[in-house]
Write a structure and sequence with these properties.
There is one protein chain. With 62 residues, this protein is an all-alpha fold. It has a domain at 20-62. 89% of the residues lie in helices and 0% in strands. It is elongated.
């Protein structure tokens, strides 16, 4: 286990490159846009299903 941790730290020091601030900003915008789109899609599907279920149960209870 100790060897694994040492090798992991060594790899992080030598083989990892961090993105620039500009790249990080661009990626943040992409993630934000897709998060908003996914949230809107989830909200839309939830709204449609809730209306379908409400319509179905109102029809049965009449």
């Amino acid at each position: 286990m100790l060897t694994y941790i040492k090798e992991s730290v060594e790899e992080l020091k030598n083989n990892i490159t961090l993105p620039t601030k500009a790249e990080s900003s661009n990626l943040m915008v992409v993630v934000a846009v897709f998060s908003i789109l996914f949230a809107l899609a989830t909200w839309g599907v939830d709204t449609v299903f809730s209306k379908m279920i409400k319509f179905y149960f109102e029809d049965i209870l009449k």
